[in-house]
Design brief:
By secondary structure, this protein is an alpha/beta fold. The protein is built from 10 helices and 13 strands.
Length: 350
């Protein structure tokens, strides 16, 4: 019995020595190639980019005045150049570089550099805007949803005292359907697409071409766009994948206030969210809160990344791709450096 106990103790000592701090598996410490294939995960990065009307404003606050009445409609105004009323010109201000132009430059540079190292996808929101449609006929071709409602009818008397029935507009205009509720048009400026624009694995040219084809407009339904990403990743096999979202936005959600909660939900699913905004972006407190919830907040008051020049986005990609998987005592080359169980900071039990 004593001999058996001594054998168990000896085995435990060998395990602790093999996997203790600063040690690797038996052999030359830290130099033997892993006997098993390394388990580094495929990196998937979903770019979620805002393309609302506010993205047409200046990226850094710099503007220039251009001349011409027709070029500036509907924002043309008279610039006086002298004391006389006729001394001046029609013109308007425009950004030296808009946030959208800076975003396109930054994304183009980054995906060209990193598309071979990561599987990059794209979501652009809101959906592309079209010319306004007015009237009852075209309203039925706009995006809509059914909402609970119970239109009421009331017994009233008309101006001559005769009894009559008065009903809500939903019944009068045919918006109410028994068993479904009332039909409510979704404002397109707050709508998102039904699926991602490009799935992870898209080429740099595909991503660049997609952004070039878009004209910014509408509002900023950030939380709906993030929910779309959550649904997409939820339908995919996560095994062997490191999943990230880079959210490039100009401020708070202008359609609802659920964006921080959606970031929190994504992070709870193991999807890291990196928040990128601009120098003149609104709602810095909300942006910092989202950065906190996303798992990669910066130190200081401004916790999100600020896109001042194209190279700033490339730094986010580098942060993601340079993050190594921590080495653990499992006989596997976790960080894919050709060594197994090296430089452990704590002992393993088995």
């Amino acid at each position: 019995m004593k001999t058996l106990m001594q054998m168990v103790i000896n085995i435990g000592v060998v395990v602790l020595v093999a996997c203790g701090p600063g040690h690797s598996n038996p052999g030359n410490p830290g130099t033997q190639p892993s006997p098993l294939k390394c388990v580094k995960k495929d990196t998937q990065i979903m770019l979620v980019t805002e393309a609302s009307q506010r993205m047409t404003t200046s990226a850094n606050g710099e503007v220039e005045v251009i001349r011409g009445f027709w070029r500036c409609i509907p924002h043309a105004k008279w610039y006086k150049t002298g004391p006389q009323p006729w001394q001046g010109f029609w013109g308007c201000e425009r950004p030296v570089e808009s946030k959208w132009e800076l975003l396109k430059r930054a994304v183009s540079d980054s995906v060209s550099k990193f598309a071979k190292d990561a599987q990059i996808g794209l979501v652009v929101y809101p959906v592309e805007q079209t010319k306004p449609c007015h009237g009852w006929f075209c309203s039925w071709f706009k995006p809509f949803k059914w909402v609970p409602c119970a239109p009421k009818c009331r017994h009233v008397r008309d101006e001559f005292g005769f009894p009559s029935i008065e009903c809500d507009d939903d019944i009068l205009f045919g918006n109410y359907v028994p068993g479904r509720g009332c039909r409510r048009t979704i404002t397109k400026e707050c709508a998102v697409a039904e699926g991602v624009d490009l799935e992870p694995g898209a080429t740099a040219s595909q991503i660049t071409a997609r952004l070039e084809a878009i004209t910014p407009g509408g509002k900023s339904p950030t939380s709906d766009a993030l929910e779309l990403v959550k649904t997409y990743f939820g339908s995919q096999n996560a095994q062997g994948k490191s999943r990230h979202v880079i959210l490039i936005t100009d401020g708070d959600d202008t359609c609802n206030d659920n964006a921080p909660s959606m970031v929190q939900q994504l992070h709870a699913l193991g999807i890291d969210v990196w928040v990128v905004a601009f120098q003149t972006s609104t709602s810095p407190d909300v942006l910092s809160l989202m950065a906190d919830y996303g798992g990669h907040a910066l130190q200081g008051n401004v916790k999100y990344r600020v896109l001042k020049e194209a190279g700033d986005l490339a730094q986010v990609f580098e942060e993601i791709l340079n993050a190594e998987s921590p080495e653990v005592c499992d006989g596997v080359d976790n960080d894919c450096d050709g060594k197994t169980d090296e430089d452990l900071v704590r002992e393993c039990a088995s």
